[in-house]
Amino acid sequence: MTHQYPALTAEQKKELSDIALRIVAPGKGILAADESVGHMAKRLNQIGVENTEENRRLYRQILFSADSRVKKCIGGVIFFHETMYQKADDGTPFVQMIKDKGIVVGIKVDKGVVPLAGTDGETTTQGLDGLSERCAQYKKDGADFAKWRCVLKISDNTPSALAIMENANVLARYASICQQNGIVPIVEPEILPDGDHDLKRCQYVTEKVSSGAGSSAGTVLCRAGGLHAARSSQVLAAVYKALSDHHVYLEGTLLKPNMVTPGHSCPTKYSPEEIAMATVTALRRTVPPAVPGVTFLSGGQSEEEASINLNAINTCPLVRPWALTFSYGRALQASALGAWRGQRDNATAATEEFVKRAEVNGLAALGKYEGSGDDSGAAGQSLYVANHAY
Amino acid sequence: MSPPVPALSPEQKQELATIAQRIIAPGKGILAADESTGAIAKRLSSVGAENTEENRRWYRQLLFTADSRVDACIGGVILFHETLYQKADDGRPFPQVIRGKGALVGIKVDKGVVPLAGTNGETTTQGLDGLMERCAQYKKDGADFAKWRCVLKISEHTPTRLAVMENANVLARYASICQQNGIVPIVEPEILPDGDHDLKHCQYVTEKVGDVPVVSPCPHHVPVVSPPMSPCPQVLAAVYKALSDHHVYLEGTLLKPNMVTPGHACTKKYSPEEIAMATVTALRRTVPPAVPGITFLSGGQSEEEASLNLNAINRCPLARPWALTFSYGRALQASALRAWAGKKDNTKAAQEEYVKRALANSLACQGKYTPSGPAGAAASESLFVSNHAY
Questions:
Q1: What is the ipTM of this complex?
Q2: In degrees, to the nearest 5, what angle opens at C-alpha A157 toward C-alphas A218 and A115?
Q3: Care to name a GO molecular-function term for this sequence (chain A) (predicted)?
Q4: Contact call for residues B29 and B75 (beta carbons, < 8 A)
Q5: Do A117 and B169 touch (CB under 8 A)?
Q6: Which residues of chain B lie closer than 8 angstroms to A173, CB-CB?
Q7: What is the spatial distance between Cα A325 and Cα A362, in angstroms, rounded to a whole number?
Q8: Which residues fall within 8 angstroms of residue A126, CB to CB, at 6 or more apart?
Q9: What pLDDT shows up at residue B7?
Q10: Residue to test with chain A: of B129, B165, B174, most A Cβ within 10 A
Q11: pLDDT attached to residue B315
Q12: Residue B166 and residue A169: Cβ atoms within 8 Å?
């Protein structure tokens, strides 16, 4: 059916598409620095730092002061609202610092999850009220992309059809509104892979994850991993149906999904290649090629795991028509946070830790990272937090 | 399939069902006095009154303190936020005044329509953010039911599937959240019957509405209702599907639809019996019997038309398992407003006009209304306002 009332003009589409391509340019990914005030409390608490506005400012300054080495590996930075309007010690607005490095500024716009009555602890996400006006203002204030997180849980009776449908719909509404305001929406349907059920399901079952490339042996994943893959496909199918129904311009969007991994209680270790194969297969079945980039969230993976897995994804032998890169929060910041510990004297060393992870992930996004061979230190530590809330 | 975790306990269900039953008790309907500040501005200016907070307070007080003849006619009063926190001259908060007369207090909770990109001027409605908390507060402050208005337009290419689906979904989310807070949601999918197209459509004067039965007592043949009405069943079907998906307890809801009428530009006149037959037929096909009551909006009908049509609906020979009553704004207030004209001295005369319409509609919702004597000056005047926004 021809579309008689185009949602976007040709110029608007071009602007959105250009922004998206800049963010996921080869070798580049996203620094997710959009932790809410409550979420920052946990991070700072872990290093014994008080959660004040000043400390949050100082901490983000560490990240944003990174030198020109980050220009080649960071395409975008996601801000929290407070941070958009903060400045460096010398008075330079953070937004300007980022833009001066040729990096695109993004803004988290959702207002958190709310319960879906009649479900087993499932949620939708709120934040649509006045979103058009907020986007218009953020655009004026320097943002060119946005982020909105929905959460789905895997258990015996979830995600339910209601949760899938409602979250897909709200993501599509958000995306539509962003695009009307020249803002590229990152669509984030996170599928939480945690919970007791994982342990029960971690049985050795050989499940073929059939590859589109034909021959080769299937991937061995435990039942939890297989379930994660299947649910991811269901969720992504619903998301792209909703985006289509809401007239969202796919070339002007990005997707921020999980990698397909077994549950955290699963004792079996899977190779990066197995994780990559399961992930890419699920994406190939559901994400239209028009989507310019898939920017993975790191979930509870350690810094090193997140880089190794991303690298494997980029060397996976299946045809991959979208950029496959990172949108990492914890997996880019853990070492930096640990090095800083709230001391100004440690700022430079902390920034250096961040730059190291940024460069590593830039290589991983090109399939050129060979691994540090070193799992000690913060890089190898699991960053898993039960029932994680941003 | 019953939800894995019940959305409501038996006690919560009982409370909601009881509230709904009280609002639509035999002979009773709703006074919709929830005009927003902008909407009431038009009303006040049409009678030469200034739109001040005091005038708004005085005008509502006039309605809420009408004498005891209205007590048997009014089961509920819908308020705008400002009005919920205003007081009568004697210092009693309006909710207390209203409840003192045996009626329940309702509150408009939506935040107005917003555009759906890629459509021909179609909209959805916003207001879900923080709705849970707002409902909890309104319940504490005396409200037992709420109202949320969605709007769908009839034209050659609308309503689209997107508009129908999105509006049904947002109504279901609103309803679910209300019920979690002991508030009965009135679900209002208004179908705007205006526009040029009506004239073209009104040429289909002999079009059957599906397979409407010809019932022998009815003197008219098949009701001649034009295609603008056909989206109505689609909309209601989508609404009840969404309510089901979202685990909404139907016995604790009310529906506020249009009557099925031709567009206002349509030159042909239809009898109240024809309108009643078309309306009840559409409702029988889509509204489950579990819904305790249907409280019609008056749209642009004159006071007298709205009463006559409601009366015909209640005399329609088809089986009607729900109460069929009124939720009138303009059709209860027009004469009163005109009589008041912003002057305190006219209060008694204005109240008399309101009481007259309340009594008329109380009879109409029992199928016992017979107009006698000349109607009030304003009673027969059409209250149609193009592209009406509350």
A1: 0.82
A2: 120
A3: fructose-bisphosphate aldolase activity
A4: yes
A5: no
A6: 124, 166
A7: 8
A8: A110, A111, A112, A113, A114, B128, B129, B130
A9: 95
A10: B129
A11: 97
A12: yes
